[in-house]
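Example record for the data management plan.
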Amino acid sequence: MLQGVEASTSDDLVELWRAEIQAAKWFAVFTLPNHEKRVSQHCQHRLIEFFVPLYKVKHRWKNRQTAILERPLFPGYLFVRIPSRHRVQVLELPGVVSIVSSAGQLLPLPDEYVTNLRNGLLMNKVQPHANVDVGEAVRIVCGAFAGAEGILERRKNDLRVVLRLEMLARSVSVEVDASEIEGIYHAA
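Corresponding structural encoding:
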């Protein structure tokens, strides 16, 4: 008779576990600056499913040494898959600021969004891109022209842009990688 009680209890636990899995949804978590990887380590220790989208970038140091770095695709964010009622476990993690929400309600992400993002990263098809349009003011953030400001003239292809820079009262076109620019937003 005791054996039947144990079987019933284990069946209940399996059903409870299945319900937890089905209730789990992906949420974007906002972290302190440069804490994405550290928060992911805390998630791993606490058995919270997480995903930090990272891409590889070649970086050249001032001493001319180059290295391949892994950078977060969405700086300041990572994704966790939890039932919404477990949000406190995530909010208590060191380095977590908040879970993305609206009017106090957590905003879940579709599973396909995270799946597609993972697949794109595996195929090296996902890279960050400056969110600027042709005609907008931009600044070059690295390379030989770092700090130079100009107007985005055209997109040459998916990863290259051409900027028009004003130098010595002349316009010159410079071709740089799209990841090397950022938008300049002036207060109105």
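Summary line stored alongside the record: The mean pLDDT is 79.
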